[in-house]
Amino acid sequence: MAENRRRHFFIDKPLQLHYMISVVAPLLIINIVAIFGFYIGIWGKVLDAFSNEQIRNEMVTASRMVEYDQARYPTASPSSSDFSSLSLFKQTEKLSQRQREIFKNILNDTNRSLLWKFGLLLLFTAWGTIFVSHKVAGPLFRFSKALDAVGDGDYRARVFLRKGDQGHPVAREFNETFEKTDALLSDIKTASKESHPARAVQIIQEKLSKIQTSADA
Amino acid sequence: MLRRLTGLFSAILFFIISSVSTVKAFEPVPEDRELLSKIERDTLQYFVRLSDKDTGLTRDSSRPGSPSSIATTGFALAAYAIGGSHGWIPKSYAYGRLLTTLRTLKTKAAHKEGFFYHFLDQRTGKRIWTSEASSIDTALVVAGALLAAQYYPGTEVEKLAHEIYARVNWKWMMNGSNFLCMGWTPESHFLPYYWDSYSEHMLLQALAIGSPTFPVPKQAWEAWLRPQGEYNGHRVVYSSPGSLFTYQFSHAYIDFRQLDDGGINYFENSREATLANRDYSLSFSGKFKSYAGDSWGLSASVGPGGYKAYGAKPGGGLHDGTIAPYAALSSIVFTPEESLRAARFFYENYQKELYGNFGFKDAFNRDKNWWAAEYLGIDQGITLLMLENYLHEGVVWEKFMRLAAVQKWIELTGLGKRSIQTKN
Questions:
Q1: Do residues B168 and B174 make contact, with C-beta atoms less than 8 angstroms apart?
Q2: Which of A209, B342, B349, B363 is most solvent-facing, going by the fewest CB within 10 Å?
Q3: What's the CATH code of the domain at B32?
Q4: Is B310 inside a domain boundary?
Q5: Is residue A166's pLDDT more than 60?
Q6: ipTM score
Q7: Contact status of A63 with chain B (Cβ, < 8 Å)
């Protein structure tokens, strides 16, 4: 089991990064749309509830008390140019400055809390895609290595995949093909070692007659 | 020759200024008097309708859910006495309301060292919203109580009013400083704000210095700052926000016309401040639809963005196109012609949006097509008292100035010296 464990998650960095972006980008868009939808929906409901007469009266009274204090005592008034996600809500047109401040603070707190959770979610998603993608990139790497070896003339090469890797059936087919090719070439090579050249040519022709190549018309 | 002409010009100018600085300098026509009287009577209804029948405590605002305000309750006491004196409400009813309210203030209303909390539960008299034991709001309720006492001498109303006044430990509210603190809360004790500059606190000063039980030293009167500034030729000892109400509240009870504070006549000062306030809004009439020659009044009020201390220069000068009709109307003793024209303008042009069962609603902003749906108690109160002074020969001033406490304050601070010399 331990020997099966990969030491490096980045086996094929460009592929895995591409894979990660391909997964994370749509996920990000889906998340943003979903969160924005929930966000607007939930806060829209909260602000709608504020228009409930009794709740509204209590809120207005609470705000008024603070506004009285602000009018009477010299305190710094907040800048009207401060941007807040509160401006996304049409319902805020009904609110007084103090009420806007209260909601703005609540929204800002919520945003801050959501932001780091969202960042953490992105981190986990990115790590997840790398973890998943290395199960694809690993086999591809093995295929590539085996094909390179064959290209270099080593027909003994085989594709060995780890448990849980993607592509086991393909690897099996690859290995069966390699084995057949290896056996054919081994037979030809053995035949070439015959002491009687005529016998060797006969065996080789017999073996080669079973395969189709570009040399066949 | 030039010197003589200058002297003559100064004499004429002095005559003009003197003549406009009296209540009767401008005589309204009967129709105008009727309109003002109607506004005063309607405004009285705010206090009649929005005071609790068991406690007498009056709502801060006509808005549902509003708590009672101790300052508004003070104006209610004055309003009952005035309403009863004219027969607008039966005198027995007025007396009953006064007794109920004063008994609540004496026995039930939450207070600290005699200072009432700013906002109280209308039914129980308990402190709400972590409000502060407020010095200015206590002064306003005590002033209302003492005025009512003057209307009902030798009665339980007078006895209770003076007991409530005597209970207030004004000296304690100085917190060892030269100024009266704005308030105290059980949570954080004395607020970090003091009445250290010109504002509506002159009434508070008068009651604190004139107190028979816990007087503050007369130096408290001299300690606060009198910042001077000018706008459009109007030189004013100004308040920080430049809100009109700061130039009006003390004048609802105290007749400053004959008082002189080291060369400052606060009645004249309020007149100049009012004219500056009007000029200031007029200078923005191209930008804001609400501002016009007869549509003015920048003062603390509700607005499209909540309650704000709107005002003019000199002072903070915060404005956004919101006009408070009460502000223009409550300057009627200072600027009768301008205020009357404003009252008529508001009534004739915005009656549907702005005038209701309790008189003028608090404010409007035409640029934002915003019209207040509510009346504010203290704004109704100042309207009623100023109209009463204007329409009835300064009757509130006359009664209030006879109080021993007020006389003591005048004597200790030397405010009356100039007028005595002038008379001689």
A1: no
A2: A209
A3: 1.50.10.140
A4: yes
A5: yes
A6: 0.79
A7: yes
Q: Is residue B351 part of a domain?
A: yes
Domain that holds residue B34: 28-423
- Are B39 and B343 in contact by the 8 Å Cβ rule? The answer is yes
In a domain, B325, yes or no: yes
Say whether residue A102 is in contact with chain B using an 8 A CB cutoff. no
Domain count, chain B: 1
The whole-number average pLDDT for the span A77-96 is: 60
Q: Name the more confident of B399 and A46.
A: B399
Identify whether B389 is part of a domain.
yes
Chain A contact set for B65 (CB, 8 A): 54, 57-58, 60-61
The reported pTM is 0.71
The residue extents of the domains of chain A are 13-152, 167-211
- Separation in Å, CA of A72 to nearest CA in chain B: 8
Q: What percent of chain B has pLDDT over 90?
A: 89
DSSP assignment of A79-146 equals PTT---GGGG-GGGGGS-HHHHHHHHHHHHHHHHHHHHHHHHHHHHHHHHHHHHHHHHHHHHHHHHHH
By CB neighbour count within 10 A (0-12 exposed, 13-18 middle, 19+ buried), where does B313 fall? buried
B interface mutation test: which of A64, A66, A93, A98 has the most B CBs within 10 A?
A64
In the chain, the amino acid numbered B393 is: E
Grade residue B191 by pLDDT with cuts at 50, 70 and 90: very high
